[in-house]
Amino acid sequence: MTDARLPISKSAPTERLSSAPSSNSAGPAPAEKPRPERIAGIDVARGVAVLGMLSVHVFDTFDRDGTPTVAWSVAAGRSAATFAVAAGIGLAFTTGRQRPVTGRTTTVTVAVRALLITVLGLALSYVTVPAELDQVGIVLPYYGLLFLLVIPLLGRSPRTLACIAAGIAVLAPVLLRALARILPEPGLSLDPTPGDLLHQPLGVLSQLLVFGEYPALAWLAYICAGLAVGRLRLTSVRVARRLFLGGLALAVTAWAAASLVLLRLGGLRHLWRAEFDHEHWPEARTVALWEVPDGHSWWSLLSRAPHSTTPFDMLHTLGSALALLGALLLVTRTRTVNRLLSPLAAAGSMPLTFYCLHILFLATGVFSGSPYTQYAVMVATALTFAVVWRHTRGRGPLESMITVIAQRAGRAAGTRKGDTGER
Predict the structure, then answer these.
(1) Under a CB-based contact definition with an 8 Å cutoff, are residues 163 and 197 in contact?
(2) pLDDT for residue 275 is more than 50
(3) Taking the mean position of all CA atoms in its chain, how far away is CA 254?
(4) C-alpha triplet 53, 291, 266: angle, nearest 5°
(5) Is the pTM of this model over 0.85?
(6) Residue 35: which pLDDT band, with cuts at 50, 70 and 90?
(7) How far apart are CA 218 and CA 146, in angstroms?
(8) Beta bridge partners of 137
(9) CA angle, residues 309, 169, 178, in degrees to nearest 5
(10) Considering the chain, what is the average pLDDT of its residues?
(11) Which is the most buried residue in 226, 242, 348, 364, by most CB within 10 A?
């Protein structure tokens, strides 16, 4: 399912945060089908998101003069959204691409992957909490829950998934504010641990769904959008152009609408009085624009700050992710560009591995007093390791481990129940 004119990467054959089977066959395995080639543009987009994620986790929000840093101005919120959309694309790729595969085998495979990613994320909290990595919120438990929530939607059409994504992006932020007024706060740390899950399972669930940094009720929009994109023929120039132009239009429109409401219609002062009144105006102007409000009032829905989980924030970052994906699908059709970007594609083919490794590195505190050095070391190490590993071993180590376990569990479930891979 590849276009001969589209340069594609030659190793690690399947897409995602961790891959799953593209069929649901049960019983004795027939001759193994050739795995679909990776699409370079998707891997490069993940690679760009890796660099953006590293920058946001290394550099502060504001410079000494009070202006937002370049890292936050460019990457904050957008990198995370790109990861989430790419996770949805990967899920589409591993469940049939343009011909969705459903059934017990697929359900169990996705569910086991979700469980493994959740456990891995909770375990990382034992590193971040003692190290006081307050600038880093572990996203993996949220991803695990998102994968479970999206299972009933795996067979839906791209149009339906796109409509669901748009509806969630607009309505979920309102629902989150309403639920936050009703539900008791879980009182957990930023990153819940396995111990928290054992002692306060409902508290952990409410944090992952509502109160956390990446609330699953809203972030499901990114996964659904990615799932819709992954069901399209991404080797098509027409599809890539529509993704780029449509995403760009959505991002610009959302940002312009937020700017109009905040800067021209007085929304920023209302937001400041409701959420940032401890800061003095006009010094608080930049803070109100870039810091996440606590959400104590409905005025918080006007924020366009990264990770504020408002309609403006979600639509802008969703559009940015789609535009980046479309642009990279287009430029990687050129063989020369594809080769130049191959280190980024290599890093993007193993995002789960690099996500965990960068958390462990930050926890050591090495070069913590010199963010530029710390960032340069992480980027150089990531790209070098990715290129070497991909050419010698293929799929990333954590991606490979989770894939093997999830696939075996799915095949075992299909065999026991005589699953035939219903579509």
Answers:
(1) no
(2) yes
(3) 20
(4) 135
(5) yes
(6) low
(7) 10
(8) none
(9) 60
(10) 87
(11) 226
